[in-house]
Amino acid sequence: MTSAESPVPRTVVPIEPSLLIAEAFDQAQVTELRHSVTSCAHTAGLAGQRLDDFVLAVNELITNAVRHGGGRGWLRLWRQSGLLVCEVADHGGGISTQRLGDRARPAPDTAGGWGLWLAQELSDSMEVETGAAGTTVRISAAVGTPEHIGRHRRD
Who contacts 78 (Cβ-Cβ below 8 Å, separation ≥6)? Predict the structure, then answer.
């Protein structure tokens, strides 16, 4: 691999029928990718407000990757044990420990800083791995019958 080539994503998701999307993106693909996520999430079983919330959370993550993660990223979306899981990775400089530790709602007049907070609020779970080599954020939403629905914060 030459220095001009992009490094591959750090997290490996098995290639199997449960994998719905695996795609690199930059600013030019954000809208198209959001539409693909919407379609796949709906087919996977999300609907109504839960679908809208999950897609908004994913949009925040891909927008963060473009803005703060080097201008591009990698998205993977898959089904796993009653969950819809989305992972967004980038190769930016990482998120500071202070920023990552602050899970409080940003002030209403704050122009930035809403992305991770919204992603956490609008999904059932969120995990963040970050460092000098980049950031990987994984969110999930329960899909299926009502007894499988997780701790969605807005329910």
Answer: 13, 18, 19, 20, 84, 85
Amino acid 105 reads: R
| Residue of 117, 122, 115 lying closest to 104 (CA atoms) | 117
* b/e code 45-71 from CB counts within 10 Å (16+ = b): bbeeebbebbbbbbbbbbbbbbebbbe
Measure the CA–CA gap between 103 and 115, rounded to whole angstroms.
11
pTM of the model: 0.80
Per-residue tokens: 138: 């994984």
Tens of pLDDT along the chain (155 residues) come to 445 555 555 555 555 568 999 999 999 999 999 999 999 999 999 999 999 999 999 999 999 999 999 999 999 999 998 999 999 999 999 988 877 776 776 667 766 667 898 999 999 999 999 999 999 999 999 997 554 444 444 44
Label residue 18 exposed, middle or buried (CB < 10 Å: 0-12, 13-18, 19+). middle
Q: Is the dihedral of CA 113, 38, 87, 10 positive or negative?
A: negative
